[in-house]
Amino acid sequence: MNSTPSVRKRPWYARHSAGQPPLWLIYALLLGPVSFLILFNYIPAISAFYHAFTQWDPGKPAVWVGLRNFIELFYDPIFLKSLQNLLKLGVFVFLVNLSVPFVVAEMIYHLRSDRWSYAARVALVLPMIVPGVVIYMIWQYIYSDAGLVTALMEALGLHRWIYGWLSHPKTALWAVACVGFPFAYGFNVLIYYAGLTNIPQSILEAAEVDGMSPLGRILHIHVPLILAQVRLLVVVTLIGIVNGFESLYILTRDGGPGYETMVPGLYMYLNGFVFERMGYAAAIGLLLLVFLLFSTILINRFVRTDDYEPGS
Questions:
Q1: I need a surface site. Which of 11, 119, 216, 231 has the fewest CB within 10 A?
Q2: CATH topology for 69-302?
Q3: In angstroms, rounded to a whole number, what is the distance separating the alpha carbons of residues 192 and 184?
Q4: Where are the domains of the chain?
Q5: Residues near 265 by Cβ (< 8 Å), separated by ≥ 6?
Q6: How big is the chain by its Cα radius of gyration, in Å?
Q7: What predicted TM-score, i.e. pTM, was given to this entire model?
Q8: Is pLDDT of 311 > 50?
């Protein structure tokens, strides 16, 4: 009898389809990025979580203090003031970041010339290649005594309205908030524009046949169908507001005048690298992390995008 030779199966790590690299090579190539991710992202995050419950100064061993850092934060007037400033900045930034780019995206979307639409998108993207530090330093000059704002007020004869824009308690916070004017951020505009271009043409044609006005189409068709983009921008904007302090550090250095421009992110940085209270800074960072985590979960839960039906 002729026996059929047995086919020996290759191990899982050596299996691969035609034209595909072997699995062992794929896993080997993934090992490097995953290792760096663990080393430079997850381990520091775990370390910060632990040290938030310690008194940890550079050069000294960390001493476990439990919830003392968090209790101190609850009574810290500077931290409480930073939360008030963050709330004021957050409301303003949310309004301009979500509204102005949407208006600009609508204008680009309604351009009849594809060439002009492309040119407008390129014009919005070009400022994104400029480093943020350079932009903040330009705005620092704009707000200086010899800057553009002061020169404009003098030209209009409004000498009584001239302040030290970044050094006066009445104007410092709002001067920082206005950095980036006219707020047509290229990333936000492109996200909105991508959502608008993905709206089915049949829905827009049906709305036009029904006699819906242009404003009605925007409110009842465009806005509900780009809620996925709105949700993304809400999350990204929230993270930027809570974690960002680069502009405040460059423009005011220490959250001044007084603590009128202090925000939790800047207070965390100053405690960690100026006051050398690493454990206290880690506690602030942990609070910000928990806030962002729960806020993101709530946003994803309540901003629904999969159950909308046009005309319902």
A1: 11
A2: MetI-like fold (1.10.3720)
A3: 12
A4: 15-64, 69-302
A5: 242, 243, 244, 245, 288
A6: 27
A7: 0.82
A8: no
